[in-house]
Amino acid sequence: MPVTHRTALRFIPVIAAVALLATACATPAGGTASPAPTESAATRSPEPTPSATPSPIETQATNEEIGLPSSCDDIFTGELRATLEAELPPLNDPGVTMYSTENAEALTVLESGVPSLRCTWGTPSDRGVATTVSIVSPADAKLITDSLTSSGFAAEEASGGEYFRTSQQTLSMDEQVVELGETHFFRGNAWIATRWVNYSPDSYTPGIVAQLWP
Q1: Which residues neighbour 79 within 8 Å (Cβ) at sequence distance 6 or greater?
Q2: Is 56 helix (H, G, I), strand (E, B) or coil?
Q3: What is the pTM of this model?
Q4: What keywords does the record list, in alphabetical order (predicted)?
Q5: Can you tell me the distance from the alpha carbon of 181 to that of 100, in angstroms, rounded to the nearest whole number?
Q6: In the chain, what are the helix, strand and coil shares in percent, each to the nearest 5?
Q7: For residue 185, how many other CB atoms are within 10 A of its CB?
Q8: Which of 68, 137, 152, 155 is nearest to 103 (CA)?
Q9: Which segments within the chain are labelled E, that is strand?
């Protein structure tokens, strides 16, 4: 398999849904109604006022959601940025055309126009990384995760979200061993999709996650 990069990365975020529970009081039917005791205005307890404080569920969902980063400089910082600049420069070489995923359902979502930011590292060669950060709906997130699961991706809960990973080895046209794979991360309303060839540091996606959810 050729090791040249195909590009068309995009990003898809996952929007967390919040369930609001409403309760209603029902008046029992039947029987003879007896007069209710009366209270003076002075002794009557004041009516409770609704609290404006969001519920823990609402707060958690809001804290998990993020806005789409404005540039790749917003997701690669600190030690991760220094490592990538030393080991796999440059950032966003226009010649790198690798997609951030080859999963059909994931590509369909990326190409549907969801808000996305695409970033790459490396040059058109046998090493490179392509990442897309996207904001996605719960329905799109489920479509992607179901497809990744059925395609054999390994799933793991970590970093406050869920990772899906796969990797393999193949031979290039000149019979050189090529290692390649994908890592996907879902949290809140965001989806981080990464495809890599011959370069996959363990700190890569966790470093992006730490930057987006400090």
Answers
A1: 203, 207
A2: helix
A3: 0.72
A4: Signal
A5: 10
A6: 25, 25, 50
A7: 25
A8: 152
A9: 116-121, 128-135, 154-158, 161-171, 177-187, 190-197
> Which residues have a Cβ under 8 Å from the Cβ of 172 and sit 6 or more positions away?
1, 2, 3, 126, 178
Question: Cα–Cα distances in Å, from 17 out to 48, 113, 144, 151, 176?
Answer: 29, 21, 17, 26, 46
User: Alpha-carbon distance 101 to 95, whole Å?
Assistant: 18
pLDDT tens, 105-128? 999 999 999 999 999 999 999 999
8: alpha, beta or left? (left if phi > 0; alpha if psi -120 to 50): left
Among 123, 97, 101, smallest CA distance to 110 is for 101
Token representation of residue 88: 């796999």
Nearest Cα to 7, choosing from 100, 90, 84? 100
pLDDT in tens, 192-203: 999 999 999 999
Retrieve residue 214's tokens: 């400090």
DSSP helix/strand/coil, 197: strand
Token pair recorded at residue 48: 């409770």
Task: Please say whether the beta carbons of 132 and 12 come within 8 A.
Answer: yes
How many CA atoms does the CB half-sphere of 177 hold within 13 Å?
4
Instruction: Classify burial at 40, counting beta carbons within 10 Å of its beta carbon; exposed 0-12, middle 13-18, buried 19 or more.
Output: exposed
